[in-house]
Automatic annotation (TrEMBL):
One GO CC term on file: plasma membrane
Organism per entry: Streptomyces fagopyri
Domain NfeD-like C-terminal: 85-143
Domain of life: Bacteria
InterPro entries in alphabetical order: Membrane_assoc_protease, NA-bd_OB-fold, NfeD-like_C
Pfam families documented for this protein: NfeD (PF01957)
Record keyword Disulfide bond present: no
Protein name (database record): NfeD family protein
Main location: membrane
Mode of membrane association: Multi-pass membrane protein
Amino acid sequence: MDDINAWVWWLVGAAALGIPLVVTAMPEFGMLAVGAAAAAVTAGLGGGVVIQVLVFSAVSVALIAVVRPIATRHRSQRPQLVSGVEALKGRQAVVLERVDGSGDGRIKLAGEIWSARALDTGQAYEVGQEVDVVDIEGATAIVM
């Protein structure tokens, strides 16, 4: 196997490893493909077969050892952006109609009018008072 054939075969191997990467979405195949591309460069520069295999192995294992844990950590993290009802918790609102423990009150929260009830059933909030939204139950804001 001469030098030109060796680098061509490594590139064919890299392309062949790219196919299961696309089909299965397993990033390990991409890391092996990068290792094959590194071996192709080594073959193109005149490195022997043993050196080519060592470069392929070293680059592939290094990528799997370094990149895979980082990717796994990013996959398991919760998104930083909170949306929907979760985004309203902890915000301040203004009382439009008296709010008490009965749930008959109204507040203006994030530009919208919400029904509201007090977290502490013995507490009441008067019109114009600012309250904090503790939770949302259905279409009712729980405030304090």
